[in-house]
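1st attempt posting a full record on here, be nice pls
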Amino acid sequence: MKDEYDSFRRRVRRERRSVGGVAVADVLTGLLPVLDAVDEARRHHDVAGGFEQVVNLLEGQLTALGPESSGAPGDPFGPARHEVASYRCTDQVEGPTCPVVLRPGHRVGEHLLRPAEVEVTGPPAGP
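the predicted structure (as tokens):
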């Protein structure tokens, strides 16, 4: 009887963690356009005053949820983590690579929130 109860408790804990991870991923996915807008405002030096305080608070709270940015220039292309915006052939690479990241991807734990949008450079097709 005790073994069954312990097994039940472990299963409930696993299910709670799983549901919690999905909930965090859903919230973060909904906030990605906000993060994109903040990044764009920073590029144009439009983050100042009260808006800067709000941005700092938002980023601090989001960091606590554990999202990770993905997609860096020079990464090898991976269809599971990159979305291709354009493709160019060149003899200068051995395999498909991402020289330009147009929009970073994001993940939290094992959940891919959004693939990175990239330009891909690859070798020419076979002979």
